[in-house]
Each structure stands twice: as C-alpha cells, then as structure tokens.
Write a structure and sequence with these properties.
46% of the residues lie in helices and 12% in strands. By secondary structure, the protein is α/β, with parallel strands linked by helices. The protein is globular and about 55 Å long. It starts with 5 loop residues before the first helix and ends with a helix.
C-alpha cells in the first residue's frame, strides 16, 4: 500500500488529532477526515499482544480516506514492537507511534506507557528496533515526566537519549503523570501544564519535530504556537472530540487550504453515505452516532440533539435517527429567530 512521504507527513503533523482510548476508532477518524483533509489522525493505542495474538485485521482496519493515519503502539519489548511495526507498515499506516504517556494502572502492569519515561534507554532500544524494520517514521508520544522525576533536566535527558536512537519526532503532553494516586482522567487535568518545558526542548533540539499536546482547546491557540516557532505542530484531543466542528477551521488556518465543509448540515450530508454503508455491513448505529453527540455543541438545540441520538439511535434506521435529531436542532434554531 502507498504511504504518505516523509516530507508530506511532516506537514500533516502541524495539526494532529490525539489517540484517545475508546474514542479514536475508525468511525470517529472518518468523521474527522470529513472536517479536515490534512490533519494527521491516530488510532487508539493498540498493544503488541493484541496485534500478535488477537484479531489484528479488525484492530488495524481503516478506510482509505483516513490517510494520513498513524498507529499508536503500546509495548516495551523491542522485538515485539518491531514485528508489530512491520505488520502496521504492511497494512499501509503512515507512521508508527510509541505510547510513553499513558498513566493507567493496567498499562503500567504491562510495563509500557508513561512508566517507560523512567527507562529512556529501553525506549531508545524500542525505537531503534522498529526503525530497522520499517521505512515509515517511528515517533514517540510522552509526558514531560513522571512522579518526582519531573525536572526539566530529567525531561531533557529522556528526549536526548531517545533522539540518539534516530527518533526525529516527539509529541509531548506538557504535564507530568502521577503513576499512582491519580486516575487517567485526573492525570489529564490535575498536574499543571508546563509548556515552557516543551518550548525549551524545541530550542535545545531545533532539528527535532516537536508537537505540543495538552490543554489546547482551539485551533487558533495552536496556530499561535506554530507561528511563533515555539513548536512544529499541535495535537488536540478531547476538545476536538467534544466539539468536533471546530476542526472545520483546521485546513484554512493551519494548511492554507479550503475547508472541506462549511456547515454542520453539509457535514451530515457527507457522513450519511458512510453511516448507511456501515449499517448495511452490520455496524450498530450507536457505534457511529456516539461520536456525533458534540456536533452541535454551543448551538441552539444541541442538548436535545445529544439526547435524541443517545436515546433513539437503536430504535430507528440510520437516516431516520439522524434526520429526527437534525429536525430538533433546526426547529430550535428557527425558534430563536422568531
């Protein structure tokens, strides 16, 4: 399968959609692609064990329209990661990303995720093993530190060690992670943001491609960081998931390209065909509509849109469910104008 070129993938990294467990499935990624043709999308984290011993064809499934697409791997065994990277490249992914940022207990018990920040030499070994197997970029997504190993010096040591393996691309969630005492959800908000760590790393390693993640809630904010040269790109996660239509401004603002859609209604028209195809293939409607709940965030009728899709997605056909929800929104909008 054809991959996106190195030069092109660097451009796409200017704006990325974060890998989010339980959310970044192929249905959400397809919705994102209708909103932005250029943003780099990521899979959920997929463990090496799941790929090597599980239903890899289902786990690695994606639509051709999703390119450029990166796969995020979870693991710490260099040989297993190399084998999975090879499989992912064969499946046509444009980038391999190693998870060194997830703080959950389940991930730690498998010796991968954020706990690997304490073992930069092992991370470098993993990256090197994958790079020798594939011709596509191998990247790392990390935190700025863990527990009490949260100084800038420790973060610098981690980046410096891993980049010596040849890794040129780092996405950094600008918070440290507490490996015990905080839930994954709390680890996304309670540890304070330290953008200065990430900006200083970019200054220290100007040849590296540094992507900032964490606390960014708008495309405009991300563009400001890029234009100031503080980082090479930004990654949005939950802000984009809960209010996906903000992504309609990504292509004009970040990539100087026309927006694929100019309204939520136009987006839904284009998403209908995908929904119908998936339903006819046996996909439950609610597996798709759950990613659409925030589409009318901050719009009149938005709450009723969410309620209708949540409660009625299993009782109607695809078009009926979405059309009824859309009618509710339009009615609410019309009432505000009378």
């Amino acid at each position: 399968m054809k991959h996106t070129s190195y030069e092109s993938i660097n451009r796409h990294r200017r704006f990325c959609i974060a890998p989010m467990i339980d959310w970044s499935d192929r249905h959400f990624r397809y919705l994102v692609r209708l909103l932005s043709q250029h943003a780099l999308v990521y899979t959920e984290m997929i463990t090496t064990g799941a790929i090597l011993h599980g239903p890899k064809d289902r786990l690695l499934r994606y639509a051709p329209e999703e390119h450029p697409i990166a796969i995020q791997l979870g693991g710490s065994d260099p040989q297993a990661l190399a084998e999975c990277a090879d499989i992912a490249e064969t499946h046509g992914f444009d980038e391999i990303n190693l998870n060194v940022g997830c703080p959950s207990d389940r991930v730690q018990s498998g010796r991968f995720g954020a706990c690997l920040m304490a073992e930069p030499n092992l991370v470098a070994e993993c990256v090197d093993a994958m790079q020798t197997k594939v011709n596509i970029p191998v990247t790392v997504k990390s935190r700025i530190g863990i527990d009490n190993q949260d100084s800038y010096e420790a973060f610098y040591h981690f980046i410096n060690t891993v980049q010596q393996s040849g890794c040129q691309h780092f996405t950094v969630h600008a918070r440290k992670a507490w490996l015990s005492g905080l839930s994954p959800k709390e680890n996304r908000t309670i540890p304070p943001l330290h953008y200065d760590y990430v900006f200083n790393i970019k200054k220290a390693f100007p040849h590296l491609n540094i992507i900032l993640n964490g606390g960014i809630t708008s495309v405009d904010t991300g563009l400001d960081f890029i234009q100031k040269g503080q980082v090479d790109g930004v990654m949005l996660g939950r802000a984009a998931y809960h209010n996906p239509f903000i992504l309609s401004s990504v292509d004009p603002l970040i990539f100087d390209s026309p927006a694929p859609v100019t309204s939520r209604y136009q987006l839904l028209e284009r998403y209908y065909d995908y929904i119908s195809t998936e339903i006819s293939s046996g996909t439950p409607l609610k597996s798709i509509t759950r990613h659409m709940l925030g589409l009318f965030q901050h719009q009149y009728g938005g709450k009723r849109w969410r309620r209708h899709l949540s409660e009625q997605a299993h009782t109607h056909s695809a078009h009926d469910s979405v059309d009824k929800a859309l009618h509710i929104v339009k009615t609410a909008a019309d009432l505000t104008r009378t």
